[in-house]
Amino acid sequence: MASGQPTDKMKFKRILLKLSGESLMGEQGYGIDTRRLEAYARQIKEAVEGGVQVAIVIGGGNIFRGLSGASKGFDRVKGDQMGMLATVINSLALSSALEAIGQPATVLTAIGMFPIGEPYSKWKAIEAMKAGKVAIISGGTGNPYFTTDTGSALRAIETEADVMLKGTRVDGVYSADPEKDPTATKFDTITYDEVLARNLRVMDLTATALCKENNMPIYVFDMDTEGNLSRMLSGENIGTYIHP
Q1: C-beta of residue 116 within 8 angstroms of C-beta of residue 88
Q2: Is the Cα dihedral 94, 233, 173, 142 positive or negative?
Q3: Residue 212 and residue 119: Cα distance in Å, rounded?
Q4: DSSP, res 6
Q5: Percent of the chain having pLDDT more than 90?
Q6: What is the pLDDT of residues 1-41, one digit of tens each?
Q7: Taking a C-beta distance cutoff of 8 angstroms, is the pair 135, 101 a contact?
């Protein structure tokens, strides 16, 4: 069934959800925790059933990170390409988890990988979302030296999302690392300029600057607590809203 207008309780019509590859590890320390994957799938299906069109970009840090590979002697370009492949693995896993609970999904890849996924284009992603499918966009930007944060920002802008959601294990943006600094305070809202001026590593600087230049708002929230995606989409103040 095609996705229609969002219900009265839903704040956005179309979202780009960035999921952390590291979060997919759950308590395992490596790979994919099926319980975490299923919890994500349930939350995403609930959003679609509420009338929200959903595109997703997943990181690959639970399998391989190009930057860390480069620090251990890998060629940086090859390391980043390995990281891109890791995002494809995670995307296939999420699409499988979604389809297992009755939520159609399609995997799009930034680099040619047929029949694993269809080549990405803005129009294919939007067409899938309008048809009620979750558009899972893998492979980052398809280029080395760009993170999946930057890939998420790019895809959010391209697919004309209302907001880019960064689902993490942290419940928002803080003035410092709350795990290291007990005096760190959480921001309910903050501007792009403040993020950049304070050098807050919400995302890499390229991704933040790209969102700023294209007026793409960002919402950072804890995706690992089941039900938070629905609460955030319903307008509850459970994260940090980054805006012009």
Answers
A1: yes
A2: positive
A3: 27
A4: P
A5: 78
A6: 344 444 456 689 999 999 999 999 988 888 999 999 999 99
A7: no
Query: How does strand 105-109 pair with strand 134-138?
Result: parallel
Please name the residues in contact with 207: beta carbons below 8 A apart, sequence gap of 6 or more.
Answer: 147, 149, 150, 152, 153
Closest C-alpha among 130, 131, 135, 168 to residue 149? 168
Joined together, the tokens standing for residue 39 give 């919890």
Amino acid of residue 206: T
Q: What is the DSSP string of 16-70?
A: EEEE-TGGGGTTSSSS--HHHHHHHHHHHHHHHHTT-EEEEEE--TTT--HHHHH
| Predicted local distance difference test score (pLDDT) of residue 113 | 93
Q: Rounded distance, CA 68 to CA 70, Å? A: 5
Q: What tens digit of pLDDT does each residue of 208-221 get?
A: 999 999 999 999 99
